[in-house]
Amino acid sequence: MGVQLTENGEQRNEMFFEMYWQYFVAGLVLWLTVKLGLYMKKSRSTETIVEDKQTKAHRVSRNDSDSESSPDDDLCPALPLDLKHIPLNFSKIPQEESLKRSEEFYQLMNRRRTVRHFSTKGVPKEIIRNIIKTAGTAPSGAHTEPWTYVVVSDPETKRKIREIIEEEEEINYKKRMGKVWTTDLKPLRTNWVKEYLTDAPYLILVFKQTYSLKPDGGKKIHYYNEQSVSLAAGILLAAIQNAGLVSLTSTPLNCGPALRALLQRPISEKLTLLLPVGYPAEACLVPDLTRKPLDDILVEF
Amino acid sequence: MGVQLTENGEQRNEMFFEMYWQYFVAGLVLWLTVKLGLYMKKSRSTETIVEDKQTKAHRVSRNDSDSESSPDDDLCPALPLDLKHIPLNFSKIPQEESLKRSEEFYQLMNRRRTVRHFSTKGVPKEIIRNIIKTAGTAPSGAHTEPWTYVVVSDPETKRKIREIIEEEEEINYKKRMGKVWTTDLKPLRTNWVKEYLTDAPYLILVFKQTYSLKPDGGKKIHYYNEQSVSLAAGILLAAIQNAGLVSLTSTPLNCGPALRALLQRPISEKLTLLLPVGYPAEACLVPDLTRKPLDDILVEF
User: Fold this and answer.
1) Considering CB atoms only, which of A25, A91, A292 is closest to B136?
2) Mind listing the pLDDT tens digit for each residue in A120-139?
3) CA-based, 20 to 30 A from A201: which of A54, A83, A188, B193?
4) CA-CA distance, A198 to A194, in Å (whole number)?
């Protein structure tokens, strides 16, 4: 079949296809094969991220950053392998006293309320330091103690923190959080104006350490760092309440990187919570909330 | 071209292919197209899960289950819109007393150690109930109180829990956790045998509620449910320590669904922590760990 020159353009095109159609088909098959190969590769790499949700959650909480750094040959536990085990220092107290203490501690903690309006009255720094030390007694995954507490009392730094947060919070409320979330917050009368950031004598910014560096420069994995830091924050709150002070457990959405830079924390740390601490403002109001009764939160077997 | 019958089988095959090759090629193109289509569809659906990590983390923490249920027209806050605000009930204590209390509370909490060997001696249930009530005073995202505490003292149920956990933990230690994690745990001398699950008089299983149902049947989002439940667990630990008891903060990896089924918890709940509670065994040993000094965890501005 040779090329047939005709005056009719259409006919010319038909004959061109007739001659070269095998190449079109081969090209189509090749293109489809390459495309399929690329998608199979892409699908496999996203699968390793999504895979089993629980295993993923544990991998992320185990290692929020890069993959493990030590090859098997150099495996060295984060704690000394010959770590001694010693007798527990424990003093038993009579059960009647246990019961009384448990009732009093419940009454103390039940008086705790989240406070959003602070007095500017100062608090001795030693009290705050004891509170931080108490939070530092929390358990943590493999005893990694993955926390940094940044305590800010300097007025200029508090002002900068407030600027950063109010700017982000305005965007959060107006755009990011969505209607359902802002509606759920309406009864609590919160918005992006946060006077407590400059009123309260102290701001405690709780950073979680996603990893740290071992003496040999290798990365030390911080297992369950998010949960450990949140749990430690519960002990922090108990210490604040016990010391006769008030606080607010806030989570400044999207402010982490800017605050980390301002407070010169390393890239391995991520802001988890911000707690203003001090005394409540005069005539401070709180939402008239009630807590669930015991039967709503306890199931016994 | 017709079928040519020959005595040579090979020639017959060649001629078969010559006759029907267009169908083979068409079939190949069709198969490639279908496969590509399927992979494109799969890739798009995994992408919507991986997307932007921070937005995802907030979406997941806001709503661990399905998407928001209320259309804009029906938006109704989870708390009453006309929620009253009332004066805070606060009694100021002298700063010297604050300081003294903060020191004593630190000493109390610093004596807390994680204990893995329990006495079978009983504890009055009222103490445990007070401890749970205390944990229930924790703050939570939009006051959703997203926790269920399952307290198990029944020996048969504890035995079943132990069976489930030891079976999973053996696989965890031998396969899932990986060499680095098991190496990091070696100094703590843990393995998959967990006698404390049947020795301790009580097991507290902490479930987080990823969502709940509103009176109208719509889903109530539980913002920051993971962090809220972990924070409440810190208050729980403080209450346990304060009452003169000991515990272990454990995270039974991959046991959640089986334990949820055993304890008849709904699908909206996920096991977060398991804490045995009681008295330490006689001559109980603990790792000779030290806690970081204050300067390692505190930064002041």
Assistant:
1) A292
2) 999 999 999 999 999 999 99
3) A188
4) 8
